[in-house]
Specification:
Elements lengths: L2 H15 L24 H13 L17 E9 L4 E10 L1 H6 L2 H5 L7 H11 L8 H18 L5 E6 L2 E4 L7 H9 L7 H10 L1
Length: about 200
């Protein structure tokens, strides 16, 4: 079995067993906090930031969590190993517990932390794992860490976004705020509220 096939097999297992909240696998040199880089100008960068703040819900987006807390916006990416492509799939708002669970660094490198077990319990709970001894949760994090190491050994990934069933390249300044919001929230946002109101009045 090739390395790519092994990678895909482990990745599929991770997705199957942790469908609601999964550790992030990030290629070397990629920072998913820099979405503003994809906007063409300063005003659009500010517009994107404002829109993300405006759409913040009151509870965590993670299925089976629903915790009311100060939320952090994070992006969702997938890895297409055969084409060496890092694909922006969407975005979500996470509570502190879920945010910690998606961070391999916060889980793997701090296994002696007092909150380590609590994080594993939260991970198991939101993914509905029958995991009383937390063995499965630990194994999934170990699998994710293996995928992270393999990902970092690949020299360069292409970056793309998913639009419906299509995957298209994304580069600095290539997408408008409207484009990014549609991708991040999987639906059109009212970026221009005045025009939306006018359309409603015309009906």
């Amino acid at each position: 079995m090739s390395i790519e096939s092994q990678f895909q097999s482990v990745l599929d297992s991770l997705k199957k067993n942790a469908p609601n909240l999964s550790p992030k696998i990030i290629p070397r040199g990629y920072d998913d906090n820099n979405l503003a880089l994809f906007c063409p100008g300063k005003k659009e960068k500010e517009h994107l930031s404002d829109a993300i703040k405006k759409n913040e819900p009151t509870v965590c987006d993670t299925k089976n969590c629903g915790l009311e807390a100060q939320l952090t916006f994070t992006t969702l990416w997938s890895i297409q190993i055969q084409s060496k492509t890092y694909v922006l799939e969407g975005g979500q708002y996470l509570c502190p517990k879920c945010e910690k669970c998606v961070s391999l660094e916060k889980i793997i490198t701090k296994s002696s932390d007092d909150n380590y077990i609590e994080s594993l319990k939260h991970f198991a709970s939101v993914n509905q794992l029958q995991d009383s001894d937390l063995y499965q949760s630990q194994r999934l994090y170990n699998d994710a860490y293996t995928l992270q190491i393999l990902t970092c050994s690949i020299p360069q990934f292409k970056v793309a976004v998913r639009k419906g069933n299509k995957i298209e390249p994304i580069t600095e300044g290539s997408h408008t705020v409207e484009d990014l919001l549609t991708i991040l929230f999987n639906k059109d946002k009212e970026v221009n509220e005045d025009s939306s109101d006018d359309d409603d009045d015309d009906e």
